[in-house]
Amino acid sequence: MLYPEIVVAGCGNPLFADDGFGPAVIEEMEKLSLPDNVLIVDAGLGGPHFIFTLLDPEVTKKLVIVDIADYGAEPGSITKLRVEDLPPGSYRDAHSWDLAEPLQRIKDRIDITIIGCQPARVTTPEFEVGLSEEVQEAIPKTIRVILETIGVDYGTTIERIQEERQPGTAKTSGGSLKIS
Amino acid sequence: MSKVVEISPTTRHEGHSKLVLKVNDQGIIETGNWCSITPVRGVEKLAVGKTPEQVPKIASRVCGICPIAHNLAATEAMEASIKCEIPKDAKALRHILQLANRLHSIALHDILILPDLYIPGTETQINPFTAEEPVRSVAKRIQRLREIGQTIGQIAGGDCIHPRNTRIGGMYRNCSEQAKIKMYDLAKEGLVLAKAQMDFMIAVLRNYQTRESVNVGGMKVPLPKTLGYHNQGYLATHAFYGCSSLEECPSWDIERFKEVRPWDWYMGEMEVSLEEPRYPIGGTTKIGTKVNPQMEACTGIPMYDGQPVEVGPRARLVTYKNYDEKGTVGQNVAREMEYVDSLYEMIDNIDALNPSGKVVADYIPDGDGSLGWASNEAPRGTDVHIARVKDWKVQYFSMLVPTTWNFATCSAALTGAPWQLAEVIMRGYDPCVSCATHMIVVDEENRLVAQKLIQ
Questions:
Q1: What is the value of ipTM here, to two decimals?
Q2: Chain A contacts of B62, Cβ < 8 Å?
Q3: N or C: which end of chain A has fewer CB within 10 A?
Q4: pTM
């Protein structure tokens, strides 16, 4: 099967500054050793047609979507959303089906969590690469929340990626992270 | 007296575009303008000064549906500029990746056009989501084909959406013997399904072609025999893959290409004077709305030998296989014919792949500033990237994406059709209009809806 039991999809476009949050979280998570039933995927802009419409509810039981969400909070704040919280049109990619919402179609059979980060700067339509400091610092916290959501023990893994952080990669040790 | 009708946004394709149509008293299109309304700017500027490794990654983010074509075309444009020849096993892996992407794309397009078509012998338009047979098994077959395409792409490209295995000079790693066997098994399974799917789609399309009229939002619209005909010519650079030199591909010569501005080509400011609330989905634009395709269009108009041309499956079949059917149905049939072709080609490439062969060139030059270009035959047409690399820094980069070629050609093809069928003609091009960001706005007034903040 293409997608396993648990799928974590980082959505967004790194060409529009903070919109690259989802893919940046996935890039950071690639340094972790995750169980075989977990797939982390950089969905870019292709979430609706490459993932949400291709999940088999017989196999995939949990979907975690990581994206930016403008909900009026301080930049870098993270929230957990359910499909019901999303306004009509979210992830309604015109290329996917018949203007129906792909997530609405699967939400009763797959447990869906959306982890949204309040962006500081989205530069559309102008291209700009690089996350703002606030959003960058939200990455470790987000990974902690993802691991909690998918039931993976994160205590040691976070410490490990801190040790192994390579120069030039996204920060993994944001000021707000408290490792217990 | 001509009237103006606007369909905005157009549906069942990637990105945001609209149709502005000047129609006569019978509702027949006199002039049609199909234009992108997604402003995406600056990739050229962003690329300058970056390393050749970074630019294909940037290019692949421009679009949500064809990242693979953009990634491959940009990588090969860099290789053409630095004059780097890649090993044959790396080429085979790239071919497999690209064909897997095409397989997925054709299957997805089937779903997008099925609601326009009828179950033969009935007046029932096909709803691909119905639980009833025979549509249910067709939908399952389409899903399996998409899954096969994505799985093969994942094996060859390292990732099924944004491939991470491609690099300047070849591929990062070859696949294992087991992975090769898995790709082979999947392709063989796909071949049987693709043949059945192709036969089904062609039968349904041929049935559509024989109809006198079709139903659009409860309106009975006469179906012209010349739906989607144009005389614009075709451009394709390879039957399957693409190329990056004029010796290999005499049909694409950069000297014969130029781009004009939309205001030289599209209609100027007008006012909508025809409105149809029954048109799916949600009716057409309200009477009195000002429209101005010249100013709203967000892409240039590329010309080849001074004219817009068609790119895509029919262009490939016309150029390399003597295909000659015009019109929207001919275009969709051509796409269906590519199903089986792409799987046979994929199987040939898997056969030729040596899992222990090298996949990175021995020598990767830094580049002397020569101009290099590479075309990649994306599912929806020729994707040309142009680059100049000097001392391992990109000095110039430009992308000519497939749907940009088709905007003006499709606009010409709209003439003579009832305006209600304009979207049917447009969908024949399987358009992919560059997407912008898709940030979630939880509430339009920016009210905090999410209660549970994670501190």
A1: 0.78
A2: 15
A3: C
A4: 0.87
